[in-house]
Amino acid sequence: MSPRQLRARLTLGIALGGLLLLLAVPLGYLVDKAAWANGVIEEVEPRHARLLGLEEMGERIERERARPRPPCPRWSIRPVSTPTAPVPTSSSACGPWRSRSG
Fold first, then answer.
1. Taking the model in full, what pTM does it have?
2. N or C: which end of the chain has fewer CB within 10 A?
3. Is 82 left (phi over 0), alpha (psi -120 to 50) or beta?
């Protein structure tokens, strides 16, 4: 191989190496950005699914909110300081929550 051919190949190799290096930096940035975006999507997806579920149930939720309910008792358990405080007889007096016994 003549020195002229060696020089041409060496120049071509250096030019291609420089081009690959110039392309590697933005491609690395794009790969990192894509990984970050996937992480954000995984984080937001459950909240978005919950929002969609609430939107689907919106009519039912509004109907339940508009339904009159008895007022909640002031105490759900008897406080130590006032042994004669009223104790609710039903857990449904305060909404849809159920008592532990039933």
1. 0.42
2. C
3. beta
**pLDDT tens digit at each of 102 positions of the chain:** 888 999 999 999 999 999 999 999 999 999 999 999 999 999 999 888 888 988 889 899 889 888 888 776 666 665 566 556 555 555 554 555 544 444
Structure confidence at residue 1 (pLDDT): 80
Query: Do you know the residue count of the chain?
Result: 102
Whose tokens are 């978005």? That residue is: 48
φ and ψ at residue 76, rounded to 5 degrees:
-90, -25
- The full DSSP string for 22-85 is HHHHHHHHHHHHHHHHHHHHHHHHHHHHHHHHHHHTHHHHHHHHHS--PPPPS-SS--SS-TT-
The C-alpha angle with vertex 86 and arms to 85 and 91, in degrees rounded to 5, equals 135
Report the interhelical angle of 3-56 vs 58-66 (nearest 10°): 30
Q: Mapping DSSP to helix (H, G, I), strand (E, B) and coil, where does residue 5 land?
A: helix
